[in-house]
User: Fold this.
Amino acid sequence: MNLSITLRDRRTYKEYAGLFMIKTGAWVVVALFLASLGYICYHGAGTLSPSFLSSFPEKMMEEGGILPCIIGTAILSVGAMAVALPLGIACAVWLNEYAKEGPLKKLITLAVANLAGVPSIVFGLFGLAFFVTVCDLGVSAIAGILTLAVLTLPIVINTVRETLSQIPNSWRESSLALGASKTQTVLRTVLPAALPGILTGAILGLARAAGETSAIMFTAAVVSTTNLPNSPFAAVMSLPYHIYPNSQNIAPGFFHFEKNLS
Assistant:
């Protein structure tokens, strides 16, 4: 009896310790996020103004606003998701609902997993080689959109597929038992139930596309422009790429020191 009580107490203590570590880690992440957000708001609130958000950059981006950057980022990220989301949902549905176990399914699953681990600079070079050069799209918004769509595709596929796998099979069986076809079951039962996961994948993919620099450096973005994009084949500015050259002017001594070392 005493031995069983001792073992039970040990398991209880381990559970409490594990739960405490999980909660501590979560609160540390929240605290770091709030601290970063507070630091940005404290130092950046004074510089925000309607003219900063609605004007063009001037004097080699040392003055002026970021209107072309905001519009360019919106075009690239929303356009990428408009391409990647339908393809990602279709691929996830096929892998989870239709594909039979075999070499083809394993190959596609492995390809998606490997694609998710590829660095973004590799996607940028791929976009430069294929979309810009082979497809002759040039440095343009459409080339950047397609490159970002390829980059965010594995995020959408993995998120949606994980959501689909968590839907009970009894729902599918009940739909089929009532006379619905496989396609009707997927469209009217499975996908509506997976809508929260689909929205999560869309948000994650949108955030990834909006924050990318390397993938659009060679395919879509320009350092500065005085015109808003008037066609899909026009180059655009982007907030992440706009920050990159400006960051080199913040601490010129550091970059000079780095150059001397090389």
Notes: Confidence is low (pLDDT under 50) at residues 251-262.
